[in-house]
Amino acid sequence: xxxxxxxxxxxxxxxxxxxxxxxxxxxxxxxxxxxxxxxxxxxxxxxxxxxxxxxxxxxxxxxxxxxxxxxxxxxxxxxxxxxxxxxxxxxxxxxxxxxxxxxxxxxxxxxxxxxxxxxxxxxxxxxxxxxxxxxxxxxxxxxxxxxxxxxxxxxxxxxxxxxxxxxxxxxxxxxxxxxxxxxxxxxxxxxxxxxxxxxxxxxxxxxxxxxxxxxxxxxxxxxxxxxxxxxxxxxxxxxxxxxxxxxxxxxxxxxxxxxxxxxxxxxxxxxxxxxxxxxxxxxxxxxxxxxxxxxxxxxxxxxxxxxxxxxxxxxxxxxxxxx
Length: 323
Ligand code: F6P
Description:
Substrate binds at residues 126-128, 163, 170-172, 223, 247, 253-256. The chain is of the alpha/beta class. The protein has 11 helices and 11 strands. The strands form 2 sheets. It has a 7-stranded mixed beta sheet with strand order 3-2-1-4-5-10-11, with helices on both faces. A 4-stranded parallel beta sheet has the order 7-8-6-9, sandwiched between helices. 6-O-phosphono-beta-D-fructofuranose binds at residues 11, 102, 126-128, 170-172, 223, 256.
């Protein structure tokens, strides 16, 4: 391997820049040429590929977003799109890839490896933390901190007005952000797609908190739940508890922005270097992650297919703390 390409794909996550920087710097350390592929797989298809030098990665570690930009490429899902992408890689002589992104992005890398044999190592870059094969994904810690900071602010106004807030957090189909942000913000309840909480139980919880004279109630709702988002659930609760003053806030994309936390900078840096070393050691079609503080390589297929379970212990703790 002499030339590697690096790209970010799917939803951006804080720490992606730190990961790109680590890949580029590690590449230089091992005497490789490194190419930045812009807008994920779109850039591979449209030949938006530029050689990186040390200036390309100056002052990016501390910035949110991804300077390589990102996209969710529909064309790469087609065999024709992947053929164009392959031809462009050949043109530049790129013989291996580091793909930073979530499950969709890693699925692309896996398919590409199967079809064209382009060695790829994936880095888990998503705020959702929904990838098997790593305890934490790049961006999750920052997103949880951002969510908690926002919820703290909502708590001030909720307490001032004795209000019940339903706050929706991101996570696609997974409740990891909701659990973490819920525990960290003393939520009255945390609703996640992985565990259904009937409205009746939520009502019971709210009534017992009323008896305990709680001044404000924050319910964290993970997007992607089968019972609907924060607005739908709030509506159901309002019908049963008409005297409650209920408001809804959807935190949305602010959870994806901002400077990466210290944790995400370190995680991204560690994984970026390990990805390059993995490629040089012949570890292909794998995702590099951290489990129990150790760097581990997991076949991409497992990372995207195997279910990452929510931590039952965290759920138990959250339940104790909210009653
Ligand atoms: O995967 C990251 C994520 O932010 C999810 O939490 C969310 O469901 C999705 O991306 C939103 O995607 P988009 O920015 O394309 O609307």
